[in-house]
Every structure is written in structure tokens, then in C-alpha cells.
Amino acid sequence: MSATLSVRNLRTHFFTKEGVAKAVDGVDFDVAPGEILGLVGESGSGKTVTGFSILGLIDPPGRIVEGSSIRFNGEELTAASPERLRAIRGAAIAMIFQDPMMTLNPVLRVDTQMIETVQAHVKVSAAEARDRARKALVQVGIPSPDERLRAYPHQFSGGMRQRVAIAIALLHKPKLIVADEPTTALDVTIQGQILFEAQRLCRESGTAMIWVTHDLAVVAGLADRIAVMYAGRIVELGRTADVIERPMHPYTKGLIGSVPSQNTRGHRLAQIPGMTPSLLRLPAGCAFKARCPIAVDKCNEMPALEEHRPGHWARCWRAAA
Amino acid sequence: MTGPQPLLSLRGITKRFVQRVDLAGKIANAFGAGVRETVVQAVSDVDLDVAEGEVVGLVGESGCGKSTLGRIVAGIMPQSAGTMLWRGQDVAAMGGEDKHAWQLAVQMIFQDPFASLNPRLRVSEIVGEAPRVHGLVDRGRQAAYVAETLTKVGLDPAYASRYPHQFSGGQRQRVGIARALAVKPAFIVCDEAVAALDVSIQAQVLNLFMDLRRQLGLTYLFISHNLAVVEHLSDRVAIMYLGRLIEIAPADELFARPNHPYTQALLAEVPKLEAHQRTYRPIAGELPSPLDPPPGCAFHPRCPHAFARCKVERPALKQVAPGHVSACHLNDRG
Ligand SMILES: Nc1ncnc2c1ncn2[C@@H]1O[C@H](COP(=O)(O)OP(=O)(O)OP(=O)(O)O)[C@@H](O)[C@H]1O
Ligand SMILES: Nc1ncnc2c1ncn2[C@@H]1O[C@H](COP(=O)(O)OP(=O)(O)OP(=O)(O)O)[C@@H](O)[C@H]1O
Ligand code: SF4
Ligand SMILES: [Mg+2]
Ligand SMILES: [Mg+2]
After folding, report:
1. Could you tell me which CATH number the domain at A1-81+204-259+275-321 has?
2. Residue B251 to residues A116, A263, B233, B266, B316: CA-CA distances in angstroms?
3. Which numbered ligand comes closest to the C-alpha of B60?
């Protein structure tokens, strides 16, 4: 089956006064129908910018650089007109933003916003649209849906706003969902409910999903494959079990080692030494070099993303070590 | 309880939000829709003491009232009822200088950095202005102080001239942390302060919190849904359900011997770093609504052990072990 989304050599740069910030710099991946791809990585590594690029939401001074390709159901999105992109965003691709207020309008009641979404897609009566909106709220675990529909976004808690934004994305029934940290602010019980709905949607309607998160435990149980980003590039990509159980890139290994748990109580947590390199002055060669415990001279040259084991890729000279 | 005076004491703290019938509702009512005014009791009758230098974790389901309680503690939102004592002094009765000192001493790191940072200010001003205004640094040292503070939270000081929208989500969250730390507070309410950070930077920030506590005796109310983080950081943990504290215990004790059935259910759900795919299942039972809280024990509709008394009588917090209180009728059954 051909991929729903194919990203090739995606480069999105911000041309700021301080210099060119290469937020995304050569990213390749596919997502198949019904597949969930977990996109994890360091804060500031380019996950959100990757999502925004797919949706055509990059504003100046940022721009998708020449030579990048984003194919969605065979259509090249980097060549699409703003009108076409808007039409696709409204129907075929939905994004759940890291900031729910990017989806929600603060001055409109929740019912107005949700009914609008439903009626933009299907011709149904207002009563039918309200009923679907109500069901969508129940799906994301919001009790008293009738009263909640009449409320404004600021009357919800942080996690409830996030869930309303998720409910709106589910109402679209899109072919692709880009979910940016959708369950970050949610407790485990409600997270479980939302992951359940997400899995169901993908399995039943073949929706492809990119699930951006820094929570490895969540993607470990949810995603089919995991892509790990560092400083604008994918440094590891593979099936979930391979990446979690046999990580190849030193950054991925460091990430897995930093997860706090019962055993770390009262002790300092393992943190990856050193600081994230500034995107404005990335070092030559491997961007992780300065923090890497196993770096060698060779690392002054840029390693390529290579398939070291079947279906398991890493961008590291010492991946096989 | 005897011992030194707590830094913060909450007694009977309650917060109600009233959602009035708006114009659309009034019109609908003219056609017989029956839209009523709704009242959300977000926080109900909370008693809690926090000792100086202590880290108290606050855990509970989305919408249970954690941020509301945090905002009241940080002095950003007034309570509807109850008293709050700071170093034994009633905050409501404080005058000019004391009140000012209290406001500076208590800082909040907000759950939603997007909404809490002024979009028109550069980071240098967001982080540096308050310390200058309050005389913690002079104008000449402001830039260096901002750079220092940004470095502590893992941000490149070169970003000081940027506006909030030019940052990633986690970077913005760290700007909020830097702003709170910059005024050298005594007490910080951390509302999901590390939720948007990847584990490595989260580790750096959590280590920083612990260092500050050791060096400066900082006290924290640490709101988080991440039980692993709470367990790692907290001395004591308070569990909230539908606006009420239902269990409070030392962290070791709580995680080893959770007493309340809700706490037990919560601990059972913690996702682990296991690579096999799991099929997620929504939790059994109906989610409670603060608009229409169940009578008796608010957890009874979802509780596997509920019996007749739970449906009619609300259980009070009672001691089940030294320093460990829980609100569940099962504890009376012996
Ligand atoms: N408008 C902008 N101008 C300049 N730089 C920007 C802009 N937007 C984003 N960036 C930079 O691009 C990089 C990637 O940002 P992005 O938001 O994609 O990170 P992320 O991986 O989503 O991180 P997080 O987990 O913290 O949300 C960051 O270093 C950020 O500072
Ligand atoms: N300004 C407001 N007006 C009306 N209701 C409000 C307001 N702020 C909060 N609420 C309600 O109070 C309850 C508690 O909200 P709060 O933000 O304290 O929850 P929370 O525990 O922080 O949840 P989360 O984990 O989702 O952030 C919710 O039912 C919410 O809808
Ligand atoms: S390429 Fe070199 S520096 Fe980079 S991660 Fe691999 S070993 Fe470390
Ligand atoms: Mg992001
Ligand atoms: Mg909250």
C-alpha cells in the first residue's frame, strides 16, 4: 500500500536577524494508512516545525527551502496554492496543536465552534451537528457535555481545553492527523481514554497519524514506529520495539536513561551532559558530538541516516558499536 | 500537629465558579429550553500545611481543581471561602509591606506558557524586569543576570532578544520557569512545570529545582499528572478528586501503600517504558462532573469497593498511619 504521507529532504529555515535557524534540516519519513508514527526528540529539535510544514503553516521569516518534498496521497504539498492548502487543512489533514488555543476561539462558545466544524464537513441539521459534538466530548472524557458545550474555553481547565481541541480534530475524520503533544497535560486515566480513541480511529478508518511527544512511555505503547529528532534531523527511526529495546543512537540511549522512576527517588536524574547546540551555529559533523560519550574523530563529518538493521535506521558513525 | 510553624497553611479553602445564563441561553429559555445557571465547585474545603523547604506533590485527574488551588495559593485568584496563612499570618489581613513581601515570595510557573507570557515583550524583559524593579539586580547587571538565569534552565542566552512566539513549546515553558526563578522566591507553585519538556531537559530542570531547594531552602507545591516525576521529587503527596483532597501521605508511603481506592486505581494506570503495543482501554465507570458531583463519596460511582454508606455519606480525611490520611469509609470497617 502506498504511503499516506511521504516527506523527503524537508528543510524549513527561519531567516532571522540573528542568523538562519535551520529548525528542520533534511527530514525523511513515510506514514502508511492506519499507521501511528511517534515523533520524539529534544525540546527545540524541530518537531512542531515539521508538523507546521506539513500543514503549510510556516510564516515568514520562516520558509520551506527549495528541494523539499511533502507528498500527501500523491499530491505535492510544497507546490500547492494557499487556497488548496487551506482546503486540505479543513478536511483531509487535521492538526492537534501543542497550544489548544490555536484551535479554539476564545470569544466563541464551545458549541458554536464544534457545530461549525461538523457542518463544514457534512450537511446535517443543527440538532444533528450538536449531537455529534456532544458525543465527541464524551469520547474525550468530558462529563456533563450539555453544560460544557455552552461554556467558553477559558472556563475549562488546561487539560479540558486540550481535550476539546482533540474532539474537534476527531470530528474531521481526516486521512492524516498531526497530533502535537496532545496528551502532555493529561493524567494517566484520561490519557488512556484518548489513546484508545486515537487507536480506534486509525484501525477503523485507516487514518494515518503522527504523534509528537517527548513521553517515551506513551509512544512506546501507542506507535507502530518511532522517529527520534535531534537538532532538526532524524537521528533514529525504526519499529517501536527496536528503538526502545535496542536503541542505536547515543542520544536515544540518553533519553531512555533519563526517564525518572521509583528507583531515582532522592537521587539526581541522569541528564545528557552539555547543552543543546544553538541552531544558529550548529557545529560541523554530527550535531550531538559535543555531548556524545562515544564520539570519535570521524564524528567531525556528518553521518548519514543508514539502515543498520532491517527497518532500523540511525544517523551515527558508531551505531553498530 | 506540633513542630515548627508551617510556611503555608490552608484552612477550608473553597472556590466556586458561576457560569451565568448568557444571551443565547436566555433566548433559548424563551422557547422553553430550561438553560440554568451552572455552578462549578472547583475546590472544596481544602486543609493543607506546607513546611518550609518541603516539596508537596499535588496529583489528580484533569479538571479536578489543581490549577485553581495553585492560583489561590499563588495569590492570583481569591478563594470564595477559607483562610490562607503565610508564616502564620492571615494573608487576607496583611497590609502593604507584608503583602508585598508575600507576593514576591510566592511565584507560579504556569501550566500554559502560551497564555502566561506577554507576547509583546522580549525574553530579556520578561525575565529581567521584575528583578530590576524589585531591586534584586541593578540595571547594569540585568543583562548578565538574565543570561545566567536562562543558562540555568538550559536556554541559549543568545535567545534573550527573542519574543515568546519564536520559541518551541518546551523552550517557552523554560522561559516561564526562568521568570519565576529570577525574583528569588521562597515558594514556587509549579503547575505542570515540566510537562512539555523532553526527559533529558526535564531531568536538568528537576535537578535544578532540587539544587535550589538544598541551597536556598525553597519550598514547592508541585502540580503534575506525571506520577513518576511526583514520586521522584516530592516529600509528601496530596491526591485530589473532584475538588477535595482525598489522601495525603509521605511519598514513599503513598506509593508503597496507597490507601484510597482512587489512588490505587491511579497508580495501576502508570504507563511504563515497555515496547510492546498495548491496547488502551478507557477506565470503567462514569467520569464525575464538578457541575453535578455525586453525593456521598464522590468516587463511589467508579469505585470497585463501594457499599451502601458510600452513596450517602461523605467520608472525612482520617489518619490511617502516622502522617498518612485518607478519606474512605472502608477504613472504618476494620
Ligand atoms: N518563528 C520562529 N523564529 C525563529 N526560530 C523559531 C521560530 N519558530 C521556531 N523556531 C525555532 O525552531 C526550532 C524548532 O522549534 P520546534 O517548535 O519545532 O521545536 P519542538 O521540537 O516542537 O520543541 P518542543 O518539544 O519544545 O515543542 C527551535 O529552536 C525554535 O527556537
Ligand atoms: N475561570 C473559570 N470559570 C469557570 N470555571 C472554571 C474556571 N477556571 C476553572 N474552572 C473549572 O474549575 C474546574 C477545575 O479546573 P482546574 O483548572 O483547577 O483543573 P485542573 O485540576 O488544573 O485540571 P487540568 O489537569 O486539566 O489542568 C474545572 O471544572 C473547570 O472547568
Ligand atoms: S556520530 Fe559520533 S558524535 Fe554523533 S552520536 Fe554517533 S558517535 Fe556520537
Ligand atoms: Mg513543539
Ligand atoms: Mg490545570
Report:
1. 3.40.50.300
2. 47, 13, 9, 14, 21
3. 2
